[in-house]
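Hi V.,

You were right to ask for the full record rather than a summary. Here it is.
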Amino acid sequence: MLVAAACSACSQAGAARARVSLVPLVAAKGKAWDWTSACRFGPQRGSGCEPSGPRFGDAQLAGNVWNLGAARGATGSVRMSVDPAGGLQLAGDLSDAPPCTDATCITTQANTWVRGYPSVLYGIDQCNAKTSPVPSPALQLPAKVRSIPAGLVGTTTYDAQTAQVTHDVAYDLWLNASGTKTPCRTDGTLEVMVWTDYDARSLLPDSLKVGTASIPFAVDRAANPGNGAWSVYVSNVQDRGRTVPWGGTVWLVLDQAHTVRKGTVSVDLGSALAAVGGLLENNYRWSRFADTYWLDTIAFGMEFGPGSGDPYGAGPAQFSFGLPSYCVEVRTTVAAAAC
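Predicted structure:
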C-alpha cells in the first residue's frame, strides 16, 4: 500500500507565511537542567523535582525520561543545557538505563527500548496543560486538522553523536478527538512520530509495518518529494476511532538512504498528517479524520535507550545531541522553509 500525502486536507488560502521560532533559546544562555529516574518529568531542584520542564517564549524543554528506572549504584543523568549562542545541547551519561518498574509506569504494556524523549515542545504538554507555554498567534494549538494552514513545515538543524545507545531523532505530534485545552492520553488519543534519523536496533518490528508514504522533505535546503520514502508502522490503533486506553501510535520512518545524522532538515508535517488521516480512514475505518481530530503538540527531540535495544534490559546510555535551531512555519514549502 502506498499512502499518498495530499495537503489540501489542511489548506487555508490567502494568508501570509508565518513562523514560530523555538530555538535558539537566547534568554536561557548558560543554563542547564538534569533529569533522572527520580525526576522523570521535571528536572532536579535541590532534593526534589520541578513540576515540569522550563519554558522560554513559545518553547518548553521536556526531559521526559518517562521509562527510566532506578538501578542500584547507577550514576548520571540526561542534561539539557543552552550554549552561548542559545542552541540546545542534550547529553545522556547514564551508567545504567533499565526500564521503569514503578506502579505508575506502563513498561509492560509499552514493550519498548525507549527510556526517554528529551525534546523541545511546542503546544500542549499531554496531561500537563497548566505548565505548557501559551502558543504563538502564528499557529494556535489545539487546532482542528482541517483548519491548520497549508504548508505546515518543521525545520531543524541538529547533530546527533551516539556511543552506547539505541536512538531515533523525531518529531512527536499528539492529536486528540476533541478541542479540549487539557488533553491527556486516553482511548482515541493519537501519537504520530516522524523519524529523520535512527539506528538499526531502534527499528520497529516488520509485523507493525503497514505500507509506505510520500511526504516532502529537504536536507540542507535540497528538496525531495519523498515519493514512497517513508515506512509506516502502526501500533495500538483499532477500528472506527478506537485505540488502547493510553492511545495509539503511527510512525513515519524515513528510509535509511535519506536519514540525517547531522544537518538541516525540513519536513512537510501537513502532508504527514494528511497521510496518517488517509491511512486511518482507508485501513481502520476512522471517520473524517481532518474534521474530527485536533493537533495539540509538535515536539522535536531524541528518543534513547540502552545500547542493547532490549525492552527489559539495562546497560549504559551515552549520547549527545546538538540543536542549534528549530522552528515551525505555515504557508511555506520544504524548499523555502528556514529558521
